[in-house]
């Protein structure tokens, strides 16, 4: 049981880090490695200065929905971890981690919704950017999709995990 507890804690921390990276990094859509777009900025690499030049993304309803859902996912997962630590030290023997698991499942569902909206509405989200056919989804988008099953699985594990001494 101690190994399961360590595994689920490690899984939780890994998915929390992946969610944070997917939300904050600048690679949801990439064109030729010299230009990319994320949830917050559109960036171009300037060869002359060797720096990234970024401007705020145009705020559309779909982009705002993805931003809110990804931030909510990070918040749900963070609250879930803090509640788990609190329950670990205060819950009586035999108790189940229902609230922790529920928060993780909500984090997975919000990340799923955000990634799905970005998948289906990337043309509207990136409307003022370059031609979409010359670009592709970036690693942060893929990280968001990878987090979905990991969050749902860890939520289910938390619901079934019992505290033993």
Q: How many runs of DSSP E, i.e. beta strands?
A: 5
Low-confidence blocks of residues: none
The pLDDT mean sits at: 86
Q: How many helical stretches?
A: 5
Q: Structural class from helices and strands?
A: alpha+beta
Question: How much β-strand is present in the residues?
Answer: 5-15%
In N-to-C order, the SSE pattern is HEEEEHHHEH
Task: Please give the radius of gyration in angstroms.
Answer: 19 Å
Helix content: 55-70%
Reported for the largest beta sheet, the result is: 5 strands, antiparallel
Cα separation of the termini: 10 Å
The shape is elongated
Spatial strand sequence of the major β-sheet: 4-3-2-1-5
Question: How does this model look, in words?
Answer:
The chain is built from 5 helices and 5 strands, in the order H-E-E-E-E-H-H-H-E-H. With 165 residues, the protein is α+β, with helices and mostly antiparallel strands. A 5-stranded antiparallel β-sheet has the order 4-3-2-1-5. The relative contact order is 0.21.
């Amino acid at each position: 049981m101690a190994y399961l507890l360590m595994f689920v804690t490690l899984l939780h921390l890994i998915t929390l880090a992946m969610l944070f990276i997917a939300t904050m990094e600048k690679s949801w859509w990439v064109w030729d490695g010299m230009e990319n777009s994320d949830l917050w900025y559109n960036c171009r690499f300037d060869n002359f200065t060797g720096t990234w030049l970024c401007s705020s993304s145009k705020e559309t309803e779909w982009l705002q929905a993805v931003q809110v859902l990804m931030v909510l996912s990070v918040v749900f997962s963070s609250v879930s971890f803090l509640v788990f630590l609190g329950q670990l030290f205060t819950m009586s023997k035999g108790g189940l981690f229902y609230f922790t698991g529920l928060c993780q499942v909500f984090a997975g569902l919000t990340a799923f919704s955000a990634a799905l909206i970005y998948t289906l509405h990337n043309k509207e989200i990136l409307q003022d950017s370059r031609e979409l056919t010359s670009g592709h989804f970036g690693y942060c988008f893929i990280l968001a999709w990878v987090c979905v099953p990991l969050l749902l699985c860890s939520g289910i594990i938390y619901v079934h995990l019992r505290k033993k001494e």
